[in-house]
Write a structure and sequence with these properties.
The protein is α/β, with parallel strands linked by helices and about 240 residues long. The chain is built from 10 helices and 8 strands. It starts with 15 loop residues before the first helix and ends in a 5-residue tail after the last helix. Bound molecules: pyridoxal-5'-phosphate.
């Protein structure tokens, strides 16, 4: 068992044992997918998505071994970081970041997963200069063609490769995508393989290493790992059945 980082308060109505089981189950399925696809074990980082979960639930998740935590909304992230001032925790912003919230958010996180425009990337590149420890970033690709999703299309990202490569103060470590809420492994798989292909092309054109692929959520993380994810962002799978 992993060491307890923050103690869990007694909370009537939350089934901690079930939570622990769910976390173990997700970790087990990640390990199996790594094994099946011939990848070495432990290469995939599990980012536990805590958006819209109360602090007690986040504490419980930490007690079950989670230390990389993902939040969608900057304001919710700020208040959770304040409520859980544990230096061992690594916070990830996985949702959309508005330029005017960037300055306050950057010092709190290790990674911004959803950098979805050149304008935001250039804004973060400028801000990074003044930070002792700027977070790394992933560029978000919209590969499903849905207007509602943020990010570059496949062609647009390649067309921007030189301008992207010119942002040298912020560390661009990889790409991120969302197949969609509630998609299954097989529905999502083509999106994941496309992200890997886009990463390979952008790597050639930009000279960036782009080692990270942030892809896969509760319904589709197994396919994501099989297609090369290095970061999976899982939320609801942990909280199934924990309300008593
Ligand atoms: C909510 C969310 C997740 C987690 O989704 P679940 O289906 O709850 O696992 C992952 N990534 C992003 C960008 C999200 O908004």
């Amino acid at each position: 068992m992993l060491p307890t980082l923050v103690s869990v308060p007694e909370r009537v109505g939350m089934n901690i044992e079930r939570l622990r089981q769910n976390v173990g189950d997700v970790r087990g399925r990640i390990a199996e997918a790594e094994h099946r696809s011939g990848r070495s074990s432990g290469g995939v980082k599990l980012v536990a998505v805590t958006k819209r979960q109360p602090i007690e639930a986040v504490r419980a998740l930490i007690d079950c071994g989670a230390s990389d935590l993902g939040e969608n909304y900057p304001q919710e992230l700020w208040s959770k970081v304040e409520a859980l001032p544990d230096p061992k925790l690594r916070w990830h912003l996985i949702g959309h970041l508005q330029g005017n919230k960037a300055k306050r958010t950057l010092p709190l996180v290790v990674m911004v997963h959803g950098v979805d425009s050149l304008k935001l990337l250039q804004n973060l590149d400028e801000l990074a200069e003044s930070l002792p420890n700027p977070p790394s970033v992933c560029l978000q690709a919209n590969l499903s063609g849905e207007e509602s999703k943020h990010g570059w299309t496949y062609e647009a990202m390649l067309a921007d490769s030189e301008v992207i490569a010119a942002c040298q103060k912020i560390s661009i470590v990889g790409l991120m995508t969302m197949a969609g809420y509630g998609t299954t492994d097989e529905e999502a798989r083509p999106t994941f393989s496309k992200l890997r292909e886009l990463r390979d092309q952008l790597r050639t054109r930009s000279g960036l290493a782009l080692a990270e692929l942030s892809m896969g959520m509760s319904g589709d993380f197994v396919a994501a790992v099989e297609e090369g994810a290095t970061l999976v962002r899982v939320g609801s799978a942990f909280f199934e059945g924990i309300e008593t």
